Every structure is written in C-alpha cells, then in structure tokens.
C-alpha cells in the first residue's frame, strides 16, 4: 500500500521560499539557500556541506521552524552516513534524529518519512543479511503509517528490490527493480540505482552482455544526474565486462576513464568500487594490485567500524585468494568466521563462508 | 579510395548567420552595444586618420515607435564602396582590428581606444532587426553615399544614393520580439549599461545633453562614492579601495599590470542570500559583464567593484572575458591590492574596519574558517559578544591569559550561566553561525591558547570545575553517606563559593533519557524499538547517571564535613542534592520535581526538628 504525502518535498520548499521572498524574510530565505548550497557541493566537499546543514539546523531552531530544523538534521545524517562514511558518528546522529522526529513539534513535517527511511537504511547497512526481517518490517510500517514524499517512497521500493537481491531471489529482484524503474521516469538520479541493480542481477545470472548494457545505462543516467561516484563505478564495471566479452583495449580505456572520474571525489570507498576495480584487475592479471586494493578496502572498513561490511570484504578476499590458490586463504577464512560470529544474526554470513570452505569461490 | 587533395569547407551561410546572430549573444540588448561600438570605433578612426582639427565626434540614436525603427548614426569615417565589400559583407573580417594592429606600432594609446576585434558585431543587428539598412559616406574625398540593405538571409544589395553627410547610419526595422527596445527608458538603460564611460557623446532622440557619462568614475577618485550612491543607486559604502596600475613579481622580473577601477565594501550582507564578491568588467571603457566573481578572491564576498584593464580580453560575444594569462595576472593584482587596502583600513581607520566586520560578520567568519590566508588577516580583529561586552580574541585573552570559554548553544541552563560567570572568566557567546569553529581554529594556531566549550557545563570535563580528590579523606563521611543513598558524588572546587553543589551528567544522558521515555510511552513505533534500544546499549550502563559535585569552597559543605551530627548531616545532604538537581534543570519531569521538593522539604523539616529538640 502506498502512503504518499499530498505535497511533494520540492513543492513544500518552493512554497516556503516564495513566501519568504514575498515577505522579504532573508533569514528564512537563507534556510532554503543553505539547503541548495549544501546539495551543490555534497559530493566533492561533504565537510562544507555538513557545515551548511549544521548552520541551517541552528538557524531553523532560532527561527522556530521545526520542519526546517529536522530537514537540515536529516541531511546531516545523509552526509555523515553516505558521503563522509563516518559510520560511528553517523549512527549516533541518525538515531538521535529519529528519536527527535518522534516529538510532537515534528509530527506534521514532510521530512519525517525520510528520517524513518534513513533509520532503516542504517540498519540495512550495518548488517543487511542479519537485519533483513527487521528492515522489511520497518519499511512496511514506514510505507503504511508515515506520509512519504516521492523520493522516500522510491527508496523504499528500491530497498524491496535490494532485499530480494540479497536473498538471491533474482526473479523477484528483477521484477521489483523494474517496478521501481517505472516509478523513476524522468528522475535520472534514481534511475541510476535501478540500472545498477539490473546490471548486478544480470551478472549474477552470468549474463555478461546484459550486465554490460545495464552498466552503460547506469553510466548515462549517473552522468545526467551528476552522480560522479556512480558514473565512475559504472565505467569500471563496464571495463570488467568488456574484458570478459573479449574487448581488452576498450576495457582498459573504460577502466582509465572510470579511475580518472573517481579521483574527483574525496571519499569513494564504496564496496561497489572495489568490487568493480578488483574484478577487472583480476581478469587482466594484475593480481598484486587487486590484493593491495582489497587490503586498502579492509583497512578503511575496519576504521569505519561497520562489522558486516568488514566481513563482506573479508569474504571477497577469501574468494579472491581461493580463485588464485593463494596461501592466506585459510588464515583469512578463520578471521572471517571469527568476526562473523560477532554479528547479532550471523546465519546467512556463515553460510557464505561455508561455501568458500567447501571450495566455491564464485561471488554468486 | 584515397584522395589527399586539400578540400575547402562548404559553408551554409543562412544557417551560419542564424547561429551567429541568434546564438552568439545572450540577449537583444547586446545588439545595440555592438552597433554603438562600431559607431565609436568609426569616430576614433576618423580622429586618427583625418587631419581635421575641428572634428567633433558624436553618436545619435533615434527611436521611431511608429515604424518600428531604431537608427544609430555616427559622424565617423564612413565606408568607401570597397570597404563595404571587404569588411561589412565579409563575416569575421574586422577593419577595426586591422587598424588597431597598425596603430599599435605608431600610436598605441589610440589603438587602446578601439573596441572591435572580431568582425562579427554587425551581425548582431539581425538579432533584433528583420531588416537592416546601412547608409554610409566615407570621409575620403569624392566618396559616394552607399546604401547597403539586407533582410538577414544570404543576400544583400548595395546602391548609390543621394549624398549624405560623412559617417554611417544604421536603420534597424525591428522584429516583434525586440520592440521593447523602442521604449525610451529601456534604450537609456542599455546605453548607460554598456556605453556610459565611452568618451564619445551619445545623444538619444535628438536630446541636447549626451546620455552617457563619458568619463569612468575611477578617473576622478573623489567622486566614486557619489557614483556608487547616485548612478549605481546603492547605499553608502563602508569603504572604497581605488585600483591602480600594479607591479607583479614574476620571479626574475617585475611586470606592470595596467589596472583601473575601484573596489568597495557595501553596508551589509546576508550569507547565501545577499552576498557580493563580484566585479563589473570594462574593456576600453565598454561594459563587458557584471557580477564577475572569479576576479576577486573567493573570500571577498563582502566586496564589489568595477575594473578595467587592457590585459583582459573579451570573448567573441564580448559578454565575458577570456580566462587566459592576462586574466590570472589581473586577478592576482586585484587580490594583492584588496589585501593591502583592507590592512590599511584596519590599521589607519579601525572604526571603519569594525563597521565592516559588523556589517559582514557571518561572511567574514565563514570565509576565515575556510581560507587560512584570510583567517590570519581577520581573526585577530573580529569582535565577539562576551559577558563583558564586545571583545576581539586578543583582547579577550589579555583577560583570561590563554583560555577561551565559549558557549555554542543559544540557551545555556541556569547552572551553566552561574558556573561560567562564577568562574570569574568572561564567556563568549558563540551561538551564531560558525563562531565556535573560528574560535577553535584560532586556539589551534596560537601557542598556549586553549578553547573550552561550556555547552556541557554540566558534564564532568567542564574546565570550570576543578577536581579536589586530595580532599576525599576530609569529606569521606559525606561521600560515604551519599553513596549509601545511591547518589554518585565527588569533591570539587568551583566558583562561586555560594553554591554548595552542582550536578554533572555524561554527554548523552539527556538523549538516552528522552529515548527511553519515548519507548516507555509507546511513542516509538514497534518495528523500530529494537534498533533504538540496541543503539542505546552502546553508551554503557552508567550513561545517564549523574554525579553530585560538592563544592569544597562552600562554607556549608565545609561545615558539614566537620559536623558530628549524623542525622543533621544526612538531611542537609539530601537537601543539597535536591537543590543541585533543580539548579541543573536537565531531565526533570513534573514527577521528579515534586519528588525532589518533597525530599528537600522533609530534609528541612528534619533539620528544624533537630534544632528544636
């Protein structure tokens, strides 16, 4: 059941801005401006974007605008969590914002839906395998009980597809992704996510041509949406698939373009990036470089402090060592088991490790 | 098949004309500018090439709303039949550029007066006109009067017509989309926008006075302020920094950058809404663009101005300047003169500098946080609101000797305020914008300076509360009794001594308290409860437990430590605890307050009873 808000968030902002402009209220106009400025630089300068949000929240408090305070608080969460990848601080800020959003003053704020969704995002990243049922229940509640703006609703749809993907039910994942894609019409930012998932699903099915075609679509949509990271990773994924399809020169060119694009970003340690690059390097025989990148990823994730992501990385390392028949496999596998047992709900992760132990090194 | 024979591009002229005329320029006003510029160059050329000492150049613009026609007439050189063919009807060939190149050798100062370069400006007439008729007679002896006519397609026609005075007249029959230019006010504003400072007088609709100022304000620095408030219609600026030729050190040598114009500081700015940091750019007195922000340093968002330099080169549409080496040199020259100018203001007229800081406080602080060079210039002279009035950081540190105490939250609790003021130190109110970030940056960059946030004055690492663990033995009985009552306690010292105790809580105590409250009251939706609870466990078990800090400086606390009356001591301690909780003000519900008041009353009653006994 869809539970959409009657007013879209964009309209709410525009109306607010118009009223402030009519009234010559520069401080309220600044609330909007701070949001715009923050969005403009969120990818390249997330620290500065964060400063704008903090300023916005403080100003909103001063002006007695609870919805704007929550709006800027919500973007603080996004920046910590998705752009700075400060997981510890991010978790703290997200839970605090979620608790705050339960207050009466914020009840009628449209942004509340996003705060709920953000809380669910957090759990989904902390351990997507372990919390899969909780996440589903949280999304159901949010969709049925909380007024959502269009984007929050789209992201919940996207998660339904992602959950099916994690559960390795690729038919359902594909159907959910297509439903999501249909809702994203004209929204390149969200279309990018749909194509990413479709490309991954095709790859899981060994459909290299399909994976490649969707990676191209991802690149195009990401470019239109100015999603630098997604565009760069899409190029790197194309490189991998072109190499598999027997076009090494084109693959190398795509790899170099992708890497060049990624250097524009100060923070880009998404697992997708490492998976794409390491996959390509492994195919072209640059093994040392691939291992060294996985080392770097592991180091970053340990520092980041999200155990499930660290274990995901260790799983990829085990698979890599296994495929290459390299001796660190046993040691790495033991550490992965040890870490996996620390997860609150480790069953699914342990199954993946068992498969590796039994000699299945594919990333299926 | 290989064919290496050089081949020529084919040009589809109507398409090219349309692109040039309709897409090169961003708006219709530019067409008027281009035609005025052609007229201007033509008069300059006549001054250079003819020997007529009595020659008085002029440009006339007339509007005929009934036709609808705009006519631009100059008394410059005019064109010979050959020149019409060679320059007027050949796109990309500029007579002015050729003349400029020749003049550069013999008379560089005259060459500097010429504006045209690209040989395309005349095309812009078709941006606004469906039909263009140009009538011209050269100043050269025996030249006929020629009429050139085009409707903007690939064809044009010329014919000899009745003799006219020397010069050129361009008659534009306007397209419907450009008829707004027929309004006198619009035309006046176009002329003033683009050609205000051209030295040739421009007359509109046969007026007696030229419509343009003819002289840029930077030629008469005393009148810049009047220009800003009059012609520009802005409020009185706080300061003006005239720009002048500038020497730039290029390592092995010095380079002189010709520079004219001025910078000024408007009265007030609002971050993100009313920021400045822009310049109007002129080249050879002709306006090129406004709001050019990249010529000024990024931090100079509280500065505006006008600049003219022959080092700046226009783009083909002349609506922007090229980002070439000359641009970088001008940029550097402006930056250096601005920094020098601001330093001089701060040094010689500190009153003006304070006005600037007051009017642009948030912009200045914001950019000082971001830009280290600017930070060093302004951080010591920005004033802060403190509990002792406005102070700069050096003035503040003269009082405290090396510590900066500030609050970044607008509402400090009663306990916070008493502690801060009681500590005998002024406290900075850094609740606005990024003042706390600036304060911390200042402390980081100065040896021996430390900054302390008093936002959590109730937390245990409050610098105004000094641990006095060495007195534990003296106060052992008091501490033991409190622990028996389940109250965490410690001995500390703080000012003022009149306060017997304060409560301190760990940093996240309030949040945890609120979250638990919401869970208990069913206000957190069921699917989310376990996620919130799981997060709360990360803070540890004692995360909400407060500590009663008994003040060893307080006479009552001292007296209690010496008292042998156990009952009296117990009652007094309970009363002090209740007072401290109330003073702290955090995490108090109606029930808690009632309970504290009851405990306090009972304790006082016991003390009274003890006295009466």
Distance between the termini of chain A: 32 Å
Mean of residue pLDDT values of chain B: 84
Radius of gyration of chain A: 21 Å
Largest sheet of chain B: 7 strands, mixed
Q: What percent of the residues of chain B sit in helical stretches (DSSP H or I)?
A: 25-40%
Structural class of chain B: alpha+beta
Describe this structure in words.
The complex is a heterodimer of chains A (364) and B (613). Chain A is an all-alpha fold. In chain A, 77% of the residues lie in helices and 0% in strands. Chain A contains 18 helices and no strands. By secondary structure, chain B is α+β, with helices and mostly antiparallel strands. In chain B, the strands form 6 sheets. Chain B has a 7-stranded mixed sheet. In chain B, helix 9 (325-348) packs across helix 10 and helix 17 runs antiparallel to helix 18 (526-537). The model of chain B has no long low-confidence stretch (mean pLDDT 84). Helices cover 39% and strands 19% of the residues of chain B. Chains A and B meet through helix 2, helix 3, helix 5, helix 6 and helix 7 of A and helix 17 and helix 18 of B.
List keywords for this structure.
heterodimer; A: mainly alpha; B: 613 residues; alpha+beta; 7-stranded mixed sheet; 23 strands; elongated
Short note summarizing the structure:
With about 375 residues, chain A is an all-alpha fold. Chain A contains 18 helices and no strands. With about 625 residues, chain B is an alpha+beta fold.
């Amino acid at each position: 059941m869809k539970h959409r808000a009657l007013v879209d968030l964009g309209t709410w902002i525009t109306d607010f801005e118009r009223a402030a402009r009519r009234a010559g209220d520069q401080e309220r106009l600044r609330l909007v401006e701070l949001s715009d400025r923050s969005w403009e630089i969120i990818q390249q300068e997330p620290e500065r974007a964060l400063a704008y949000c903090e300023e916005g929240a403080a100003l909103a408090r001063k002006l007695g605008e609870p919805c704007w305070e929550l709006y800027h608080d919500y973007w603080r969460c996004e920046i910590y969590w998705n752009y700075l990848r400060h997981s510890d601080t991010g978790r703290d800020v997200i839970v605090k914002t979620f608790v705050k959003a339960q207050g009466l003053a914020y009840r009628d704020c449209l942004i509340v839906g996003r705060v709920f969704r953000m809380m669910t995002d957090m759990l989904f990243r902390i351990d997507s395998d372990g919390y899969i049922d909780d996440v589903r229940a949280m999304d159901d509640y949010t969709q049925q009980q909380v007024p959502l703006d269009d984007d929050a609703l789209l992201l919940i749809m996207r998660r339904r597809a992602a959950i099916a993907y994690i559960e390795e039910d690729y038919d359902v994942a594909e159907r959910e992704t297509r439903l999501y894609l249909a809702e994203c019409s004209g929204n390149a930012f969200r279309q990018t996510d749909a194509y990413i998932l479709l490309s991954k699903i095709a790859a899981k099915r060994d459909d290299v041509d399909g994976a490649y075609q969707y990676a191209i679509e991802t690149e195009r949509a990401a470019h239109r949406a100015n999603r630098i990271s997604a565009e760069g990773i899409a190029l790197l994924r194309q490189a991998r698939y072109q190499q598999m399809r027997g076009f090494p020169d084109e693959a190398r060119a795509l790899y170099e373009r992708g890497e060049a694009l990624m250097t524009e970003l100060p923070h880009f340690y998404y697992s997708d990036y490492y998976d794409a690059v390491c996959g390509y390097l492994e195919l072209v025989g640059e093994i040392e470089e691939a291992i060294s990148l996985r080392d770097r990823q592991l180091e970053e994730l340990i520092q980041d402090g999200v155990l499930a992501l660290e274990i995901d990385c260790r799983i990829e390392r085990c698979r890599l060592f296994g495929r290459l028949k390299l001796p660190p496999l046993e040691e790495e596998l033991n550490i992965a088991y040890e870490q996996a047992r620390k997860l609150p709900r480790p069953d699914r992760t342990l199954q993946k490790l068992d498969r590796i132990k039994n000699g299945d090194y594919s990333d299926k | 098949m290989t064919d290496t024979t050089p081949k020529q591009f084919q040009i589809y002229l109507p398409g090219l004309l349309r692109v040039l005329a309709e897409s090169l320029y961003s708006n219709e006003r530019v067409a008027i500018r281009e035609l005025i510029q052609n007229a201007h160059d033509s008069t300059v050329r006549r001054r250079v090439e003819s020997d007529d000492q009595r020659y008085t150049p002029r440009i006339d613009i007339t509007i005929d709303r009934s036709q609808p026609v705009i006519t631009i007439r100059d008394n410059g050189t005019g064109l010979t039949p050959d020149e019409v063919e060679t320059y007027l009807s050949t796109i990309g060939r500029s007579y002015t550029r050729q003349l400029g190149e020749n003049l550069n050798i013999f008379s560089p100062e005259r060459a500097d007066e010429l504006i045209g370069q690209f040989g395309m400006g005349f095309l812009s007439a078709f941006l606004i006109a469906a039909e263009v008729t140009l009538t011209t007679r050269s100043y050269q002896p025996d030249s006929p009067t020629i009429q050139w006519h085009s409707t903007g397609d690939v064809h044009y026609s010329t014919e000899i017509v009745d003799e006219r005075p020397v010069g050129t007249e361009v008659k534009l029959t306007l397209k419907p989309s450009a008829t707004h230019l027929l309004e006198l006010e619009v035309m006046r504003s176009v002329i003033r926008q683009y050609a205000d400072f051209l030295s040739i007088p421009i007359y509109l609709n046969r007026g007696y006075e030229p419509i343009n100022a003819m002289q840029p304000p930077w030629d008469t620095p005393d009148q810049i302020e009047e220009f800003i408030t009059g012609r520009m219609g802005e409020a009185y600026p706080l300061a003006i920094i005239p720009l002048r030729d500038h020497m730039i050190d290029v390592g092995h040598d010095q380079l002189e950058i010709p520079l004219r114009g001025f910078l000024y500081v408007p009265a007030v700015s609002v971050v993100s809404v009313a920021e400045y940091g822009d310049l109007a750019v002129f080249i050879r007195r002709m306006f090129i663009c406004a709001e050019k922000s990249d010529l000024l340093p990024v931090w100079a968002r509280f500065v505006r101005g006008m600049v003219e330099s022959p080092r700046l080169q226009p783009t083909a549409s002349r609506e922007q300047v090229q980002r070439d080496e000359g641009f970088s040199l001008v940029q550097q020259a402006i930056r250096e003169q601005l920094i020098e100018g601001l330093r001089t203001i701060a040094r010689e007229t500190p009153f003006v500098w304070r006005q600037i800081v007051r009017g642009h406080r948030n912009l200045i602080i914001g950019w000082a946080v971001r830009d280290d060079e600017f930070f060093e210039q302004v951080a010591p002279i920005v004033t802060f609101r403190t509990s002792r009035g406005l102070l700069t950081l050096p003035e503040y540190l003269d009082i405290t000797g090396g510590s900066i105490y500030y609050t970044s939250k607008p509402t400090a609790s009663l306990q916070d305020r008493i502690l801060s003021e009681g500590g005998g130190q002024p406290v900075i109110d850094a609740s606005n914008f990024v003042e706390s970030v600036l304060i911390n940056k200042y402390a980081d960059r100065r040896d021996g300076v430390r900054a302390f946030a008093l936002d959590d004055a109730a937390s245990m690492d409050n610098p105004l509360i000094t641990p006095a663990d060495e007195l534990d033995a003296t106060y052992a009985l008091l501490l033991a009794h409190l622990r028996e009552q389940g109250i965490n306690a410690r001995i500390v010292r703080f000012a003022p001594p009149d306060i017997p105790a304060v409560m301190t809580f760990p940093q996240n105590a309030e949040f945890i308290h609120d979250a638990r409250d919401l869970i208990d009251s069913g206000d957190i939706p069921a699917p989310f409860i376990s996620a919130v609870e799981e997060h709360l466990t990360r803070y540890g078990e004692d995360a909400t437990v407060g500590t009663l800090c008994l003040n060893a400086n307080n006479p009552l606390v001292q007296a209690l430590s010496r008292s042998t009356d156990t009952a009296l001591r117990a009652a007094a301690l309970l009363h002090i605890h209740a007072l401290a909780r109330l003073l702290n003000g955090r995490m108090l519900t109606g029930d808690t307050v009632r309970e504290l008041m009851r405990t306090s009353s009972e304790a006082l009653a016991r003390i009274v009873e003890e006295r009466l006994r």
